[in-house]
Amino acid sequence: MSAADSHTRTVDAFSAYLEGELPPEEKASLEHHLATCIQCRTSLERFRRTLGGLGRLKRTAAPYSFLADIQQQINRRSRGRFFRRRWLLFGRIPFEWLSLAMIVAMLVYYIVVLQSSPTGVKPIPP
Amino acid sequence: MSLSERLLVARLVRRDEEAFNEVVRQYGDRVFNLVLRMVGSRAEAEDIAQEVFVTVFKSIDSFRSEAKLSTWLLRIASNHAKNRIKYLARRREQGHEPSGSDSGDLADEGKAPAQSHIHGPDVLLEAAETEDIMQQAIATLEEDQRLLVVLRDVEELSYEEIVEITGLPEGTVKSRLHRARMTLKQLLEDKFK
Ligand SMILES: [Zn+2]
To answer: Looking at domain A3-57, does it have CATH number 1.10.10?
Structure first.
């Protein structure tokens, strides 16, 4: 095998080598070449750094309004069939507010109806 | 597909809006990041990522349960991103936009104007600068190679997942990915010569 061939073979195997996918004999022969070839060693180092740079690209989160924007899109395109406005305000049914309103209503009912009614339950005087 | 995913999909098929919100909350960042790395522009990425979820809402019936929901979503995202890249390239060819605009605002982010012209190995240590250069390098790859680099080296997906997303045989994925990586390496070398 010519020198040029072994450089090419080495470089072609960089990905498989770094991902640990080379069979043992090929790995040994690649490492043997690397030990004697500064050109391929430098090339591998740069290859490794390129992959490192890609892996370090920061994760960018979707914008804050992402969900609301999509809901609005679907609402518009379905001509109001899905994600109607009131849903958009809370993102879902406002169960907390509904239950709070229910409790207040029951309290008012208790105070107004039961307490003021002459037929309301009162303790029997001894 | 796990049981919880099966249930989620069943709710999506019924057009359960809360189930859909869950999907956006769960996968929104991933889809957005993938698309952003593909097109390089935040504004384009927002637009495409929204479109991806609108498509999910519309075509959940075509989802086949032998696939994972995340894989299906990323396949839709990949296709939308690739189409947009082609569309933007066509527009540029027709002279509607200045060249390089698709790597636009992301590359300008978080970088001091005075530093943007400095070149040299030291600059490699500057995280923001390196990120810009990397993003610009990715943007020079043709869309299929771009996708493979983003899926494997940025999103760190398994080859199994990438095969499912792209529909390419594993051998093709690996050889194209290797070529893309070599191209990036060469571009970065030229940049710092
Ligand atoms: Zn060599």
So the answer is: yes
Distance CA B4, CA B8 (A): 6
Could you tell me the residue ranges of all domains in chain A?
3-57, 66-116
What is the separation, in whole angstroms, between the first and last Cα of chain A? 116
Tell me how far apart the alpha carbons of residues A34 and A72 are, in angstroms, rounded to a whole number.
57
Q: How far is the CA of A43 from the centre of ligand 1 (A)?
A: 9
Amino acid present at B68: K
Structure tokens at A57: 């690209």
Supply the pLDDT for residue A124.
65
**Two tokens, residue A24:** 């043992």
Tell me the pLDDT band of B69, cut-offs 50, 70 and 90. very high
User: CA dist B22 to A60, B27, B164, Å?
Assistant: 19, 8, 23
Instruction: Find out whether B42 and B21 touch, Cβ atoms under 8 Å.
Output: no
CA of B137 to the centre of ligand 1 (A): 25
Q: Do A15 and B32 touch (CB under 8 A)?
A: no
